Amino acid sequence: MSVEPAPTELRLPANLRRDLEGLAEASYPFEACGVMIGRSDAGRSGASRSGASRVSVDAVFHARNLRVDRPHDRYLLDPADHLAAHRAARARGLDVVGFWHSHPDRPAKPSVTDLEAAWKGYSYLIVSAPAAGASTLRSWRLSGGRFLEETIR
């Protein structure tokens, strides 16, 4: 019998949510991507009273999407931008807590490609970006070879 991991709560301030929606809209019809920095007790013993682990996002960084063959439905985060986000996190006493990208004209649900590229221990926030504007943000965490949805607060 397998034990389901405790749920994870992603704390995303309203201003950062608006920033992500704006970046997704500005990149439409191509996928936008980037890095989230903050603090996390996910996977540690510091879970909240509710049993949920918390990931708090303090800043989001936009990264260049280096996929030129299929930028409308794939992304490749620029390593230089990834490194810059790590350095910014370290300078502020924070950590990289996850990654974000948009799904133009598709739901904010991980694809098989997203699953294959995911690393354990990080939040993966997806912004659904229809032509009419960003509509949905959902976040996911890899566990046991599959994505489990995180609650966004």
Assigned CATH superfamily: Cytidine Deaminase, domain 2
SS-derived structural category: alpha/beta
Report helical residue fraction. 10-25%
Look at the structure and give the mean pLDDT.
91
Proper CATH architecture: 3-Layer(aba) Sandwich
Number of helices: 3
Overall domain count: 1
Strand content: 35-45%
Order of helices and strands: EHEEHEHEEE
Which strand order does the major sheet show? Answer: 1-3-2-4-5-6-7
First-last Cα distance: 31 Å
Keywords:
seven-stranded mixed barrel, alpha/beta, 153 residues
Helices, strands, pairings?
Layout: E1 8-11, H1 14-27, E2 33-40, E3 53-63, H2 79-91, E4 95-104, H3 112-117, E5 123-129, E6 136-143, E7 146-152
Parallel strand pairs: 1-3, 1-7, 4-5
Antiparallel strand pairs: 2-3, 2-4, 5-6, 6-7
Could you walk me through the main structural features you see in this protein, from its secondary elements to its overall organization?
- This protein is of the alpha/beta class and 153 residues long.
- It has a single domain (8-152), classed as Cytidine Deaminase, domain 2.
- Helices cover 22% and strands 36% of the residues.
- It has 3 helices and 7 strands; from the N terminus they run βαββαβαβββ.
- The protein has helices spanning 14-27, 79-91, 112-117, and strands at residues 8-11, 33-40, 53-63, 95-104, 123-129, 136-143, 146-152.
- Strands 1-3-2-4-5-6-7 form a 7-stranded mixed beta barrel.
- A hairpin with a 2-residue loop joins strand 6 and strand 7.
- It is globular and about 40 Å long.
- The termini are far apart.
